[in-house]
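INTERNAL AUDIT FORM
Audit reference: QA-55
Scope: verify that the stored structure record matches its stored sequence.
Auditor: D.O.
Record contents follow.
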Amino acid sequence: ISDIDFLLSPCMRFYTAFSLFTFFLVMQHLVVFDQTTPDHLDGFSDLEWIFLVISVGFLGAECEELYDAIDDKRLSRYLADGWNAIDWTLHTVFLAYVALRVKSFNTFGGMDSEQQKESAVFAIRVLSLNCIFLWLRLMNVLTINKRLGTMINMVSLMTRHVAIFLVLFFMYVAGFSGTFHVWFKGTPDDMAA
């Protein structure tokens, strides 16, 4: 067995992907929970720098995958893959976090320390959205398991139907909510007696 065969084996690929996403998830949570009250408004913390390096590496790998898809003329398959959409959502939220965090450094002036702190906290809140998408992305790695893989594939096939249900559900809820609001909008004093 050559070294490249070992590195490309399904077991090794699973371990690498699982390790990467687990580490990325832990770093994401550390940054979010450690920075909820940022005391360093003038620059990134050491933990944020580590997270930034990992995130830029993940973004670079995704850009390379997109370039390969364009080069091999399989862009439509790349765009149809829902996991790639989740990846790009992760990267978009990450870039928004970086932009908001840099804005909180007050490099352009005009913000007092309270505004800087609010801006930094808002950047962390934006980054916390990635927690949802990271857990979803980690599900893709777990599809290698015989039982989990079947369940995850079923859930991913159901998402379109669930989205249609939610649209219809929202229409009914909005209609009934409007009606009941008009019917029962009296003040509590009017209803007492």
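Auditor finding: record pair retrieved intact. The chain has eight helices and no strands.
Action required: none
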